[in-house]
């Protein structure tokens, strides 16, 4: 299983028309006065991303950092009709997108998505490049997995299973769900379609804070298409 200028227009040169000399008059004129007003150029400051938010994929992905593991070809990623669409042309490829704005020690990250029944989709919490991350995935074979991931090298990740099992809330051949993962210190609480179904103690792995993210993967049968409708980040439920 390897995975949001300001230009200041240059002022035009001032043109001055010189007239014929005028003889001096006995009374000198009052000196001319002028008031010059300077209008500062506008500045544009990016709107801060709130700590808790909903990403609906209708603008851009400037706050996301994405990467791939595995697979012979790069997935095609694009925003389409307010969805994040990921096309996997090759098998056994993983796509990750990490939101870079904030880190969280207690957070609930959820996503609504769908995909062709030949892969998996999931959410991520406590992501750190150096220490690892937790991810909760559901698969088209009717199973779910909670994993501890770590980078071994660029593009090479190692996964330690925390829990892999079936669930009454999953169906074989279906990959359209709303899932969530509450990460509260050393406790992980996975949800499927709004229902909490497990409580996992992950003290042994030592992660208690980090960034959130999403992932999708293809299995042996390719191509695979995954779409994310939205991602929500909030306080633990």
Task: Provide key terms for this protein.
single chain, 237 residues, mainly beta, Jelly Rolls, nine-stranded antiparallel β-sheet, 16 strands, 0% helix, globular
Gist of the model:
The chain is mostly beta strands. It has strands at 53-55, 64-70, 76-80, 83-88, 93-104, 106-115, 119-128, 132-139, 143-153, 156-166, 177-184, 187-192, 195-196, 200-201, 210-218, 224-234.
Task: Walk me through what this model shows.
The protein is mainly β and 237 residues long. Helices cover 0% and strands 51% of the residues. The protein contains no helices and 16 strands. The chain has strands spanning 53-55, 64-70, 76-80, 83-88, 93-104, 106-115, 119-128, 132-139, 143-153, 156-166, 177-184, 187-192, 195-196, 200-201, 210-218, 224-234. The strands form 2 sheets. Strands 1, 3, 4, 6, 11, 12, 13, 14 and 16 form a 9-stranded antiparallel β-sheet that branches. The protein is globular.
What is the element layout, followed by pairings?
Blueprint: E1 53-55, E2 64-70, E3 76-80, E4 83-88, E5 93-104, E6 106-115, E7 119-128, E8 132-139, E9 143-153, E10 156-166, E11 177-184, E12 187-192, E13 195-196, E14 200-201, E15 210-218, E16 224-234
Antiparallel strand pairs: 1-16, 2-5, 3-4, 4-16, 5-15, 6-11, 6-16, 7-8, 7-15, 8-9, 9-10, 11-12, 12-13, 12-14
């Amino acid at each position: 299983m390897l995975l949001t200028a300001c230009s200041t227009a240059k002022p035009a040169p001032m043109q001055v028309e010189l007239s014929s000399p005028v003889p001096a008059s006995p009374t000198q004129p009052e000196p001319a006065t002028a008031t010059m007003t300077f209008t500062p150029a506008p500045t544009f400051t990016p709107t801060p991303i709130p700590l808790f938010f909903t990403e609906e994929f209708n603008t851009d992905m400037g706050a996301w950092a994405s990467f791939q593991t595995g697979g012979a070809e790069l997935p095609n990623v694009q925003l389409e009709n307010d969805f994040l669409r990921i096309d996997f042309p090759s098998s056994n490829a993983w796509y990750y997108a990490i939101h870079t704005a904030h880190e969280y020690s207690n957070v609930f990250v959820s996503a609504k998505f769908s995909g062709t029944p030949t892969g998996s989709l999931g959410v991520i919490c406590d992501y750190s490049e150096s220490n690892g991350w937790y991810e909760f995935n559901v698969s088209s074979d009717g199973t779910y997995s909670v994993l501890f991931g770590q980078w071994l090298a660029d593009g090479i990740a190692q996964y330690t299973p925390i829990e892999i099992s079936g669930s009454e809330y999953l169906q074989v051949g279906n990959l359209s769900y709303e899932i969530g993962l509450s990460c509260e210190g050393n406790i992980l609480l996975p949800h499927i379609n709004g229902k909490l179904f497990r409580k996992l103690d992950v003290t042994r792995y030592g992660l208690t804070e980090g960034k959130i993210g999403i992932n999708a993967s293809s299995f042996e049968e390719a191509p695979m298409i995954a779409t994310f409708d939205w991602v929500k980040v909030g306080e633990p439920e």
